[in-house]
Amino acid sequence: MPIRIAIFEDNKLVRESFEAILNGTDGFICTGSYPNCNNLYADLNRSRPDAVLMDIEMNGVNGIKATRMIKEKYSEIKILIQTVFEDDDKIFAAICAGASGYILKKTSPAKLIDALNDLCSGGAPMSPGVAARVLYLFQQFAPAERTDSVAEILSHREKEILSLIKDGYNFHNIADKLFISYDTVRTHVRSIYRKLHVNSINQAIVKAFKHRLI
User: Fold this and answer.
1) Class of domain 143-210
2) Distance between CA atoms of residues 66 and 176, nearest Å
3) Which helix (H) or strand (E) holds 42?
4) DSSP count for the chain of H helices, then E strands
5) Which superfamily does CATH assign the domain made up of 3-137 to?
6) pLDDT band for position 33 (50/70/90)?
7) Given 39, 45, 78, 80, which residue has the most CB atoms within 10 angstroms?
8) Burial of 18 (C-beta count, 10 Å sphere; 0-12/13-18/19+)
């Protein structure tokens, strides 16, 4: 069954280009292509995506607000932010809103498909320049002290899995490395989400850095 992707992008040429790339790639189908997020829930109910390719700068409801809205109501939908910006505030805001990945619009079609595959396999894809900024932001925002009460919440295995995710491993890679099943990895990640009160991989990593868990 192909991976279902919805696109929210205000630039018609870019939107149509993404749609053509997805529909021309085995294993993917674009189930909805929209110029804005002003009818977000209706569009999602119509397109029923597994993942969303989300622009940041749109009239009306912007991509960061839309990301937060999606994660609040449809926590299972993965969101890949795509933008021309390498702005620290926007990167941090997108991650905190629940985005699972962040790439630049200049990313090649092949790398876009790789990012979506990674995203839907449980990874957190980022353009190299964005990844470097994210690590810097984690270092800047993480307090010096460690909160033991939070640290003790996660099991050793959960911390191990979270650390591997931070290093770029997707769920399948982690399962192979730790000699456990893919479903076991997913169960641990759901437990991490519940314990840390987050709803995305990147939010979990931010909180883990903040409390010196990884």
Assistant:
1) mainly alpha
2) 35
3) helix 40-47
4) 11, 5
5) Response regulator (3.40.50.2300)
6) very high
7) 78
8) buried
